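Sequence dictates fold. Below is an illustrative record:

_____
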Amino acid sequence: MTPQGEAILAELSSLPAHVRADYIRVLETVVRVAPRAWTRRRGVRLQWITLHDGDDDVVVQVDSGELSKHVDWDGPRSAGSFAGALREKLGTNQCAALVYGNAIYSRTWGWVFPLLVGQLPRLDTAVVVDVEHRTGARSRFSFPIKYQRLLVRRLRFEEDERAILQRARNA
Protein backbone atom coordinates (compact mmCIF):
# COMPACT_ATOMS: atom_id res chain seq x y z
CA MET A 1 0.00 0.00 0.00
CA THR A 2 1.26 3.47 -0.85
CA PRO A 3 1.83 6.24 1.72
CA GLN A 4 -1.35 7.93 0.43
CA GLY A 5 -3.39 4.80 1.23
CA GLU A 6 -1.77 4.56 4.66
CA ALA A 7 -2.64 8.23 5.30
CA ILE A 8 -6.29 7.58 4.44
CA LEU A 9 -6.37 4.59 6.81
CA ALA A 10 -4.71 6.59 9.58
CA GLU A 11 -7.17 9.49 9.18
CA LEU A 12 -10.17 7.18 9.24
CA SER A 13 -8.90 5.15 12.21
CA SER A 14 -8.44 8.33 14.25
CA LEU A 15 -12.17 9.09 14.06
CA PRO A 16 -14.89 7.85 16.44
CA ALA A 17 -16.62 4.68 15.19
CA HIS A 18 -19.94 6.27 14.18
CA VAL A 19 -18.20 9.12 12.32
CA ARG A 20 -15.84 6.66 10.62
CA ALA A 21 -18.80 4.55 9.44
CA ASP A 22 -20.48 7.62 7.90
CA TYR A 23 -17.24 8.80 6.27
CA ILE A 24 -16.64 5.36 4.76
CA ARG A 25 -20.15 5.30 3.28
CA VAL A 26 -19.57 8.72 1.72
CA LEU A 27 -16.10 7.79 0.44
CA GLU A 28 -17.39 4.54 -1.08
CA THR A 29 -19.93 6.62 -2.97
CA VAL A 30 -17.14 8.95 -4.18
CA VAL A 31 -15.09 6.01 -5.46
CA ARG A 32 -18.14 4.75 -7.33
CA VAL A 33 -19.40 8.03 -8.90
CA ALA A 34 -16.29 10.21 -9.48
CA PRO A 35 -14.97 8.27 -12.50
CA ARG A 36 -18.40 8.36 -14.15
CA ALA A 37 -18.76 12.13 -13.67
CA TRP A 38 -15.29 12.93 -15.05
CA THR A 39 -14.91 14.55 -18.45
CA ARG A 40 -11.71 15.52 -20.16
CA ARG A 41 -12.81 19.12 -20.58
CA ARG A 42 -14.33 19.67 -17.14
CA GLY A 43 -12.21 17.30 -15.08
CA VAL A 44 -13.74 15.85 -11.92
CA ARG A 45 -17.17 17.48 -11.66
CA LEU A 46 -18.08 19.37 -8.51
CA GLN A 47 -20.45 17.10 -6.63
CA TRP A 48 -22.24 17.27 -3.31
CA ILE A 49 -22.72 14.04 -1.40
CA THR A 50 -25.01 14.06 1.62
CA LEU A 51 -26.02 11.43 4.14
CA HIS A 52 -29.47 12.27 5.47
CA ASP A 53 -30.61 11.82 9.06
CA GLY A 54 -32.29 8.51 9.76
CA ASP A 55 -31.88 7.38 6.16
CA ASP A 56 -29.45 4.89 4.78
CA ASP A 57 -29.47 6.80 1.52
CA VAL A 58 -26.47 8.69 0.26
CA VAL A 59 -27.57 11.45 -2.13
CA VAL A 60 -25.29 12.64 -4.95
CA GLN A 61 -25.90 15.99 -6.69
CA VAL A 62 -23.82 17.78 -9.30
CA ASP A 63 -23.13 21.34 -8.12
CA SER A 64 -25.50 23.71 -9.88
CA GLY A 65 -23.97 26.97 -8.76
CA GLU A 66 -24.40 26.64 -4.98
CA LEU A 67 -20.65 26.87 -4.50
CA SER A 68 -20.43 30.19 -6.33
CA LYS A 69 -22.46 31.85 -3.55
CA HIS A 70 -19.57 31.14 -1.16
CA VAL A 71 -16.45 31.33 -3.32
CA ASP A 72 -15.07 34.38 -5.09
CA TRP A 73 -13.74 32.69 -8.22
CA ASP A 74 -12.02 35.90 -9.32
CA GLY A 75 -10.13 36.55 -6.09
CA PRO A 76 -7.47 34.67 -4.19
CA ARG A 77 -8.85 31.39 -2.98
CA SER A 78 -7.96 28.07 -1.52
CA ALA A 79 -9.81 24.86 -0.84
CA GLY A 80 -10.45 26.29 2.63
CA SER A 81 -12.85 28.72 1.02
CA PHE A 82 -15.22 25.79 0.46
CA ALA A 83 -15.79 25.45 4.22
CA GLY A 84 -18.78 27.83 4.37
CA ALA A 85 -20.54 26.06 1.53
CA LEU A 86 -19.87 22.68 3.11
CA ARG A 87 -21.21 23.83 6.48
CA GLU A 88 -24.37 25.17 4.83
CA LYS A 89 -24.90 21.94 2.88
CA LEU A 90 -24.47 19.97 6.10
CA GLY A 91 -27.49 21.82 7.55
CA THR A 92 -29.77 19.15 8.94
CA ASN A 93 -27.89 16.28 7.29
CA GLN A 94 -25.77 13.81 9.19
CA CYS A 95 -22.76 14.15 6.89
CA ALA A 96 -21.90 16.21 3.80
CA ALA A 97 -19.04 16.11 1.33
CA LEU A 98 -17.81 18.16 -1.59
CA VAL A 99 -15.99 16.27 -4.35
CA TYR A 100 -13.70 18.06 -6.82
CA GLY A 101 -10.49 17.62 -8.78
CA ASN A 102 -7.24 19.13 -7.53
CA ALA A 103 -6.85 21.16 -10.74
CA ILE A 104 -10.16 22.97 -10.22
CA TYR A 105 -8.49 26.37 -10.21
CA SER A 106 -6.88 25.88 -13.60
CA ARG A 107 -10.38 25.41 -15.03
CA THR A 108 -11.92 28.48 -13.38
CA TRP A 109 -11.77 30.39 -16.64
CA GLY A 110 -12.43 27.37 -18.84
CA TRP A 111 -10.10 26.17 -21.56
CA VAL A 112 -9.80 29.45 -23.45
CA PHE A 113 -7.91 31.63 -20.96
CA PRO A 114 -5.01 29.23 -20.32
CA LEU A 115 -4.56 28.85 -24.07
CA LEU A 116 -4.48 32.65 -24.50
CA VAL A 117 -1.62 32.94 -22.00
CA GLY A 118 0.22 30.05 -23.63
CA GLN A 119 -0.48 27.28 -21.15
CA LEU A 120 -2.43 24.08 -21.44
CA PRO A 121 -5.14 23.53 -18.83
CA ARG A 122 -4.02 21.07 -16.17
CA LEU A 123 -5.60 17.67 -15.81
CA ASP A 124 -6.61 16.55 -12.34
CA THR A 125 -4.10 14.30 -10.62
CA ALA A 126 -6.32 13.56 -7.61
CA VAL A 127 -9.95 13.47 -6.57
CA VAL A 128 -10.27 15.61 -3.45
CA VAL A 129 -13.09 15.08 -0.95
CA ASP A 130 -13.87 17.55 1.84
CA VAL A 131 -16.13 15.84 4.39
CA GLU A 132 -17.85 17.35 7.40
CA HIS A 133 -19.88 15.49 10.01
CA ARG A 134 -22.56 16.84 12.30
CA THR A 135 -20.30 16.16 15.29
CA GLY A 136 -17.93 18.85 13.97
CA ALA A 137 -15.36 16.44 12.56
CA ARG A 138 -13.94 17.74 9.29
CA SER A 139 -11.47 15.95 7.03
CA ARG A 140 -9.97 16.17 3.57
CA PHE A 141 -9.14 13.04 1.60
CA SER A 142 -7.19 12.90 -1.65
CA PHE A 143 -7.34 9.92 -3.98
CA PRO A 144 -4.58 9.95 -6.66
CA ILE A 145 -5.83 9.20 -10.15
CA LYS A 146 -4.43 8.22 -13.53
CA TYR A 147 -5.89 8.08 -16.99
CA GLN A 148 -6.21 4.87 -18.93
CA ARG A 149 -5.71 5.35 -22.65
CA LEU A 150 -7.95 3.11 -24.67
CA LEU A 151 -10.13 4.42 -27.47
CA VAL A 152 -11.47 6.92 -24.97
CA ARG A 153 -9.48 8.27 -22.03
CA ARG A 154 -10.88 7.03 -18.71
CA LEU A 155 -10.21 8.13 -15.14
CA ARG A 156 -8.91 5.38 -12.83
CA PHE A 157 -7.71 5.48 -9.25
CA GLU A 158 -4.02 4.65 -8.78
CA GLU A 159 -4.79 2.29 -5.90
CA ASP A 160 -7.65 -0.02 -5.17
CA GLU A 161 -9.56 2.50 -3.06
CA ARG A 162 -12.36 0.02 -2.37
CA ALA A 163 -9.83 -2.29 -0.67
CA ILE A 164 -8.49 0.60 1.43
CA LEU A 165 -12.01 1.53 2.55
CA GLN A 166 -12.80 -2.14 3.29
CA ARG A 167 -9.68 -2.32 5.50
CA ALA A 168 -10.81 0.86 7.28
CA ARG A 169 -14.29 -0.63 7.80
CA ASN A 170 -12.80 -3.78 9.35
CA ALA A 171 -10.36 -1.89 11.58
In short: The chain is about 30% helix and 25% strand. The first helix runs from residue 3 to 13. Helices lie at 3-13, 17-37, 83-90, 112-116, 161-170. The beta strands are 47-51, 58-62, 95-101, 126-133, 138-149, 153-157.
